[in-house]
Amino acid sequence: MTAMTREKENYGCVIQEIILLDQDGRRGQVVRAGNPLTVRFQAQITEEILFDPTFRLSFFRAENGGVVYVRSMKEDGWDISWLPRGDYTVEWQTPRLTLPKGRYKVDVEVAVVPNGYYQRLFSVTALTDFEVEEGGLDDPQEIASAWRLHGVEGLSWQKGKDNWFYKHFEHAARVVIYYMLDDSPLLCGRILDVGCGDGITDLGIFLRKRPQLFVGLDVEDNCRELPRMMRENGLPSDSWPENLIFRQVDANHIPYPDDYFDVVLSWGSLEHITGGYLQTLKEIKRVLKDGGLFFLHPGLYYSNFGHHIGEFSSEPFVHLKKSAEELKEIVFTAQPRYMDRGGLVYAPADFWRYHSELNKITVSKLERELRMLDFEFKKVAVRAEDLVTYTPELQKYSIQDLTTAEIYMAVVNHKAPVSGEAERTAERMASTSPSGPFDYSHYEMLCKDRQWNRELLGEYIPYFAGCRKVLDLACGSGIFLELLAEKGISAVGVERNKSVADWDQAQGWEVMQQDVFEFLAQSQDTYDGIFCSHFLEHLPFDRVLQLIELILRRLEPAGTLVLVFPNPESIRMQLFGFWRDPEHVRFYHPELIETVCRHYGLTVIQTNREASPFAFPPPPWGTAFPEEKSGVQADGKRGLRETIRDVYREALRKLRLVPRADLVALEDRLRQEKAVLQQTLAPWTEKATWAINRMWAWTDNALIVCRKPEM
Predict the structure, then answer these.
(1) Do 375 and 285 meet the contact criterion of CB atoms below 8 Å apart?
(2) Would you place residue 189 in the very low, low, confident or very high pLDDT band (cuts 50, 70, 90)?
(3) Which of 234, 365, 529, 544 could form a disulfide with 464 if both were Cys (CB 3.0 to 4.6 A apart)?
(4) Beta bridge partners of 555
């Protein structure tokens, strides 16, 4: 029997057809009780990914709608973690149908079951009835059944619960979202993962919750393998989210402002932070909002799982029984039983380094530290050893440390207002300046020569001639936006400082008050021109790489990117200009930035590296100076006056004296020559003064103009 359905699409799923088949695979309208029956239907997932779906089958009487049988895949042991976009065939089968005699309809319901809570999405009912002959005597609810789902081969949840991708993308993500954080609305805000590892857990959380921003930090770059692992586990390649960002950063110096994140995660990372993790906890508290959630799952050093060398020895608590030398020998000589790590392979030297650098975390110590930092406990889950056999080497260790295998914590951040002496100190600090604490806007608005910057930035306007819309990153006080507007070029600016952005908006310019990286990750707009002036020097190198990657997403094919930044080959910039800005981090050589741009597929079409060093010609020495008057007459004869003067001077010379008139004449001559020198050399002197610190150097600002290739 074929029973066509009303096609129904909702929540990213379409049920297209319901078919009933007998034991021989034939379709029909009559089914004999006691015989096998198969109900088959087609399910099409239209979204890129649907999480925690299930299907439920119902039989109900055609004449009165009375339900006689209901069964879901979840009830029969199917835990469908996720289904990517595609077509699937679903079958419900029973070896012996025991429905009473009569006419029935079939209904298929689609639902999601996050954290075990059944949420009905929609249902589809077959258009055609079917009839059961010679009704069965058994309870219809006791019908033995089994489900089949075709088309899911290769998905991670089909590979078993020991699969590395499953343990992180499914299990860890569900633990964080549902088990520990109760599916909090804060998970839709900004999330930070400290010690993100290969990024699989972050991806699983992100795709389920779609937060505003998700940042994963780690000192190692294991996230580079994530696209490969996605492909190997059937995850759609187009499911990579733009606002999921991974950064190679030390967790002791989190590069984000105070009160920035709604949720912070730390799964198996605190034990690996070199030199101790207390500073990291302080940094987490700083960037986490008041009332924000902090989930942590640290490795406990004294447990039987926290030493990270279990693949080299199965002896319980081996790290507490053996000396360091003995452990090292085991790691470097034993035949390891490596677990699946999604294709990532580590050498024995890596394992030994990880073990040697472990922070010796205990439950009691970590609890004291969290309470000291004013975190409030929300949830704690503990997995304990069933049995610990004490040996002489273990006698000195506490029962709690040995029996606590794993701990999961969810705490709430509290930022109490300062009080007492601390409050009075803060008041005194604030009162020292009538303008309050120093802000970058003070430098931006008060220390920069606007007219001089207009002339400087005006040189870059021609590169955007003909552009429809230009994006100015870190636009500051809007000088370039102003210049573009004067040329009739539409532009948008991005500025993180609220005071500066407010001023820009008051001038009538379109400026977004947002962090540049956030904007580039979240915006869906594209631009045929992007201007980035004096922003690279504010960033460490890993952020420069991330910036170029994000710019590429927003730059249209054949679009122009102009990068301007301090030139380290300029002596003047090295000694003076670079240090004017309070937030400069480092110089970048133009050749390095050119290489980065080319690496990411940009075509470098122009730089100012070809410019000659500053050089100024010597002064014009051919200037005529005043000539000394001669005592010779026009006819070449000397007069009486000249003869008497010569005799007089000769007498004075012998007496070693100088005539007064000669002194006056000499002074007058020197005065005239000085005037000539000043008039002749003044322009050159002005240039030389400006250029003295630029001698043997190129221009102060490096320029790189790139074009994105056409598709």
Answers:
(1) yes
(2) very high
(3) 529
(4) 527
Quick one: 36 and 139 in the same domain? Answer: yes
By the 8 A CB rule, do 302 and 362 touch?
A: yes
The CA distances from residue 706 to 114, 519, 559, in Å, are 47, 21, 8
- SS3 of 3-42: EEEEEEEECCEEEEEEEEECCCCCECCEEECCCCEEEEEE
Residue, of 526 and 11, whose pLDDT is higher: 526
Write down how long the chain is.
Answer: 711
Which residue is listed with tokens 């709690």? 400
State yes or no: pLDDT of 463 exceeds 90: yes
- Would 628 be classed as within a structural domain? no
Q: Using alpha carbons only, what angle is made at residue 169 by residues 168 and 174, rounded to the nearest 5 degrees?
A: 85
Q: Which of 507, 508, 518 is nearest to 474 (CA)?
A: 518
pTM above 0.85, yes or no: no
Number of Cβ atoms within 10 Å of the Cβ of 58: 18
For CA atoms 448, 453, 456, 462, give the dihedral sign.
Answer: positive
Tell me whether residue 233 is in a domain. Answer: yes
The Cα angle at residue 140 between residues 134 and 146, in degrees rounded to 5: 110
The neighbouring-strand residues paired with 49 are: 84
Does 447 score more than 60 pLDDT?
Answer: no
* Cα distance between residue 671 and residue 7, in whole Å: 104
Same domain membership, residue 509 and residue 383: no
User: How far is residue 541 from each of residues 197, 223, 405, 546, 591, measured CA to CA in Å?
Assistant: 20, 17, 39, 9, 14
In the block, which residue shows the tokens 């429905």? Answer: 99
| Tokens of residue 460, six digits | 């870059």
Q: Is the dihedral of CA 266, 271, 275, 279 positive or negative?
A: positive
Cross-strand pairs, 215:
192, 245
Q: Are residues 295 and 312 in the same domain?
A: no
Average pLDDT in the chain: 82
Which phi and psi angles does 669 have, rounded to 5°? -65, -45
Q: Verify that 164 and 71 share a domain, yes or no.
A: no
Cα-flanking dihedrals φ and ψ of residue 410, to 5°?
A: -130, 120
Please state, in angstroms and as integers, the Cα–Cα distance from residue 47 to each residue in 13, 114, 122, following that order. Answer: 7, 17, 16
- Print the domain residue range for 40: 2-152
Please indicate, yes or no, whether residues 120 and 213 belong to a single structural domain of this protein: no
pLDDT at 497 over 80: yes
pLDDT of residue 426: 41
Mean pLDDT check: name the lowest of 180-194, 327-341, 450-464, 551-565.
Answer: 327-341
Which residues are registered as beta bridge partners of 150? 89
Same domain for 565 and 485: yes
Q: How confident is the model at residue 412 (pLDDT cuts 50, 70, 90)?
A: very high
The whole-number pLDDT of residue 612 equals 53
Model confidence at 232: pLDDT above 80: yes
Q: Assign residue 101 the CATH number of its domain.
A: 2.70.50.60
Cβ-based neighbours of 4, under 8 Å, separated by 6 or more: 17, 18, 126, 127, 128
Distance CA 657, CA 667 (A): 17
> How far is Cα 165 from Cα 225, in angstroms, rounded to an integer?
12
**Residue burial 100-124, b: 16+ Cβ < 10 Å; e: rest:** eeeebbbbbbbbbbeeeeeeebeeb
Number of domains in the chain: 5
- Average of pLDDT values for 611-631? 51
Classify residue 435: in a domain, yes or no.
no
Give DSSP secondary structure letters for 625-662: PPPPPP-B-TTS-B-HHHHHHHHHHHHHHHTT---HHH
